[in-house]
Amino acid sequence: MSQHAQKAAEFITNQERMKWHDESLWFVRTKRDKATHGIPEWEQLRELGSQIKNHTLSNLDQYLEEFEKNALQNGVQVHWAANAAEHNRIVHEILARQEVQRIVKSKSMLTEECGLNEFLTEKGIEVVDTDLGERIIQLREEPPSHIVMPAIHLKKEEIGELFHQKLNTEKGASDPKYLTESARQHLREKFLSAQAALTGVNFAIAETGGVVVCTNEGNADMGVHLCPVQIHSMGIEKVLPKAEHLGVFTRLLARSATGQPITIFTSHYHRPKPEGEMHIIIVDNGRTAQLGREDFRNSLKCIRCGACMNTCPIYRRSGGHSYGYTVPGPIGSILTPGIDLKKYSDLPFASTLCGSCSDVCPVKINIHEQLYRWRQIISEEGHLPSSKKQGMRIAARVLSKSTTYKFGGKMARWALRAFPRFFIYNRLNVWGKNRELPEAPKQSFQEWYQKNRKEP
Amino acid sequence: MVSKKQERAMSKESILNAIRKVKPEKVELPEIPDFHRESSGTLADFIKTVEGVGSKVVLEKELKDINQAVQNLFPAATIIASPLEKVQSTIDLKKIQSPHELEKVDVAVLKAQLGVAENGALWLSEQDLGIRVLPFITQHLIILLDSTTLVNTMHEAYQKIRIDEAGFGLFIAGPSKTADIEQSLVIGAQGARSLTIFIKPSESN
User: Fold this and answer.
1) Which class does domain B41-200 fall in?
2) Tens digits of residue pLDDT in B25-47
3) Which of the residues A212, A331, B78, B173 could staple to B121 if both were Cys, CB 3.0 to 4.6 A apart?
4) SS3 for A140?
């Protein structure tokens, strides 16, 4: 069994929990629908978002250079990192120069991707994630299961027990309000005693040389404005040409992500605070390679809203951890094969190709088409598991000739009616797990058509 | 040996060269059309939106004296901070040496440059904050809004403001909040626990 299928199988052993997870995410999806229906020009905005990103990707080198030039003029120190290791090294050098012992981080999927926390911890620097969901999973020593709601897989009782052990909250307490307040007190102390803050970047503006970070908790700003050193890590695809383009993306992002009209804080950082240091690290780490893949380059338009996860019938029922990568769900499944085709060869198959992800994507990434395209490549490169290979071979033989197809259909219809249940629903029939096969009709559509629609 | 500085310059060039080699054919930058709608952008829309996300609104007619209003809202507050002259602050923001000194602020009173009707966002930049961390570190936040500055959408907002006029600027659309525990909304995460908006018809009136 593939890795995703295996982990998904573990996830669904607890049916009640699976149902809860499914419904939690669907709830967010319906909030998204409600928020978008209030905007008559929503589809126009998606198209604009898509085209602005397409334009930017087609001039990415110029915009990055323009961004760097303007950022330098603003007094920002700009760094370039070809890969995760270089990114981590740059962060460490900045911290080491200022003898930083503790760094507070706000949500950044890029630093998850780079494994920054582990790297800095090994160097003896304390890293504190400050988004509540991120802090929860950091205390649990596990990766996020969603890019916007990192702890969506956990029940409040589990978080209560975790906080009891780590933050000394009352035993058995699981009220979200009480737990959030405890985390607030705990994190405030960390904010006030850290020497450096690191954030991810939602948008970088070439025209002005600044970066924009969107949060609801205010954690990014608590860190950035209290610490003498601020660092912003961004992938090369985060750049936008002008400030006016933020109008389009701030309207799209929060509505798609959580159904809010906008995130509570949309912070625009352009120059270091008085006597402070501001650094921006521009990271490639496989993105230029993705830009070079014609069929897949538009995955770089992604603004990390998570809408494709919330709507995905597979993600909702298998959980973010089943994907084994920082960015799970449909978007993760088209990003990962470009990173390691063999390792992630099962992820493009973790989909029904229903297309719901593409329908909700605020920048119109053709996610389900790319999933299908990756399947073809994975098959051509010989990374299909043998069960799938055999199935495909048989299907090809049956479907390529009308006589075998007709005969096969007849046999299947007969077998479904005539065979006892255990003969049909067994280990070999993976489709029949948790699912009923349709009732077999007596005749095929072709037979029915010939009988009923024959020319008079 | 290659110095670290040279290595960095190499990374920059290698990234830019890689992009140049593979970037797609030029795509035109689309124009953003005027989405102005006659029916939207009213004060009523704005109030409905901000109350929907958990902010409180106090209208000008109920607001005779601003200091009295602050006192009425937060009778237990001992430290009040504001860069506005008409507000009686208990600390002088000009004398603050380090943002840490604002740790115990109970209420901050600020003035927004503009408000956005579609989402309730308020724009403030560094000079409106006094000190950057103030709207986050304070327990409670009050923002004054001149209703004549209201715009319909974010497009109009970005036309009116200059995002780099100061080193830092932001849109605030409510009190700090989180739903990270089982999707339960909790107001008062890491930033201010409440946002009250004092709406005035116009500064000159």
Assistant:
1) alpha beta
2) 999 999 999 887 665 568 998 99
3) B173
4) coil
